[in-house]
Amino acid sequence: MKKTVLVLGLIAIVASFGFAGGAQEAGGAGAGDVTEFVIGNGAEPESLDPHLVSGVPEHRIMMGLYEGLVVPDPETATAVPGVAESWEISDDGTMYTFTLREDAQWSDGTPITAQQFVDSWLRILNPETAAPYAWFPSMFIKGAADYNAGEAGPESVAVRALDDRTFQFETVGPLPYTLDALSHYSFQVVPLHAIEEYGSEWTLPENFVGNGPYTLAEWSPQQRIVLEPNPTYWNADKVQLDRVVFLPVEEDTTMYNMYINGEIDWATNVPLGQLEQAQLRDDYHVSPYLGTYYYVFNNGREPLNDPNVRKALSMAIDRQLLVDTVTRAGQIPAYSMVPEMTGYPGIEGLGDDLDTARQLLADAGYPDGEGFPELTVLYNTNEAHKSIAEFIQQQWLDNLNINVTLENQEWGTYLNNRRQHNFDIARAGWIGDYQDPNTFLDMFITGGAMNGGQFANDEYDSLIAQAAQMQAGPERFDVLRQAEQIFIEDEMAVMPIYYYVNLNMIDLQKWSGWYANIMGWHPVGDIVGAN
Which structural domains are found in the chain, ordered by start? Predict the structure, then answer.
């Protein structure tokens, strides 16, 4: 017997709430009778092609322009119907069959078919696409990893169109988190007809074709991206905003001041210098966030190829002092990669232990830091990252007699250098793609595209692969815990620093449809004026 999820029209019923009259004056732009919602989005996106991006700023835009088989519920961030109106999952949890909506179409009126999903997923997996997130569907779909590695052809990938409206794929094992993961943009269907016609220029506003609640009206690089309602969207009646504007504001202080001055409606972070002021306001929102802030060690470079060095660097940091005096927003010191999750036992990690750190450094051949080379810490431009890096720089100098230099780079350059292993130590953060410990661990398998630190351990790889073949339950969690012990306690491949909290500024007396959730996902198609 198969488990069947029948959810026809659920979004149309649940999400058609809120403002339903004429347009209201709203938004930071003073738009008159136009309902405009302006977002301080952080960095300029790498691309508007969902197969060529890998960051949180891009994800916010993708949720407006595109829609996959499922979408995240705005309150829980769990999967609800998107292009697919219903689905079936086989008893062994490995075969997924989706029925597409009859009225699903692209913004140019072209119908969306199951074959387009097949071709789109093969596109991101094609090694010639060089998709930075191709590793993610490769971890799910049977045969995908071999194709992406160039070791097999596209026919090896277990995706198929049974007819125009029925799409089916097979997973590598009974992965209990598959459905929620499908909300991610790496599983997005893309307009191959537009890509074929316009090539790399298909994401320009004059050529753009999408299938989300909004379509692209303007893209002025380093200035703004403007979305307007997509009239062909299957649930267009729920879309209430006339314009959504994304501003690439990298400096949190600038973003905060723009918010206070009424120039933006949603500030996606709060600067350290304004935390105390913000915390007194009703429009300040802090909530748990399924994410870990950490530093990546380049395991392939001396002296960072020595686990004793990596452990010494980690154990010499007073994380509690860091979150108390630098970040100051309720972050939790992290000694493991995986944040606390229901049912997962987790690991203790190695903690802060200055005496042990000094001994480990001496064991590695650098007593009291003598002879230790000067390394560079790379981070992307942001006041908070700079303050954290300066704190850690001083801790390593005071506690281990080690000097490091700091280097900041703009978002795109920083990401490229991390992917190319062109760094000594790099700031990183990981927000879970789904609510399971595996999302913090599977990217570090040997040769993984997101494994910028070049960590490699056969036993770790084997445990991650074993967990993928197991049903949900305590036994599976125990296998993942063993993998995390190797990754952190044995190898210290990365240095966990703290678990995130989600910091936002938004007036929920003015806007509805925006909810704090552990994933930090806020689909703009669900945001409306609250009146």
Answer: 3-249+507-529 (3.40.190.10), 288-501 (3.10.105.10)
CA distance 253 to 274: 8
3-state secondary structure 12-28: HHHCCCCCCCCCCCECC
Q: Which residues pair with 80 in a beta bridge?
A: 71
Any residues with CB less than 8 A from the CB of 165 and at least 6 apart, and which? Answer: 99, 100, 102, 113, 114
Q: What percent of the chain has pLDDT over 90?
A: 89
**Based on C-alpha coordinates, what's the Rg of the chain?**
23
Alpha carbon distances (Å) from 57 to 161, 190, 389, 432, 440: 32, 19, 22, 15, 19
Phi-psi sector, 526: left (phi>0), alpha (psi -120 to 50), beta: alpha
Beta carbons within 10 angstroms of residue 345's beta carbon = 12
pLDDT single digits (tens) 285-341: 999 999 999 999 999 999 999 999 999 999 999 999 999 999 999 999 999 999 999
Q: Is the pLDDT of residue 530 over 90?
A: no
pTM of the model: 0.84
Burial of residue 130 (number of CB atoms within 10 Å: 0-12, 13-18, 19+) = exposed
